[in-house]
Amino acid sequence: MSTVDGASRRTRSQTTAAIESAAVALVNELGYDAVTVDMICERAGVSQRTFFNHFKTKDAAVIGSAGPGVDQQFAREFIVAHGPLLPDAFRLVQLPQVVAPQEMAARLRAVGSHPELMARQMQRFTLIEAEITDILRLRLLNENPETDETTRQEQAKLLASILAGLFRYLAETTTRTGATAPVSPDRVAELLRGLGVPLI
Predict the structure, then answer these.
(1) Enclosing domain of residue 7
(2) Cα angle vertex 20, ends 54, 9, to 5°?
(3) N or C of the chain: less Cβ packing under 10 Å?
(4) SS3 of 1, please?
(5) How far apart are the C-alpha atoms of 99 and 80, rounded to whole Å?
(6) Residue 179's closest CA among 98, 107, 94?
């Protein structure tokens, strides 16, 4: 079966997934610098033209087409909830849907293996940072309505920045340990408690 024939039998989303999977696997096997678009195409069974119809760069294929988002249902529950703020806030961010935690861990290992990939992924977090900050502000308003709005806004921004750092930690830890599943919010909470860090 030729590359073109193989690609033509897939849906667009299946082709995208195949390219992403090939890019992630190759980076984890060979290292970011050793991987070329040609190698990704060969592994995915697509032509270069098909690759560039889906992704502009090798980096984009490794990072993936779907960025992090906000779980809207959880956000509504989060705003009116009470209890430890930080572990719950960690669950606000919805990572791209994948078939299995192993696939997410593989992507985190690939992204965490190279500073440029990590920087690009963190840029994607900034696209939802304002929304997260507003959700955090509403939760803080619900919990402590007497706090002035300026302070509440700064607290929400600080918490959003802490969340960004936690997601960087998630990728770096998955890369360093070779974990087959991402670090869970419960484990993050456990580590913070062990340090004596209040979970707010």
Answers:
(1) 3-62
(2) 65
(3) N
(4) coil
(5) 31
(6) 107
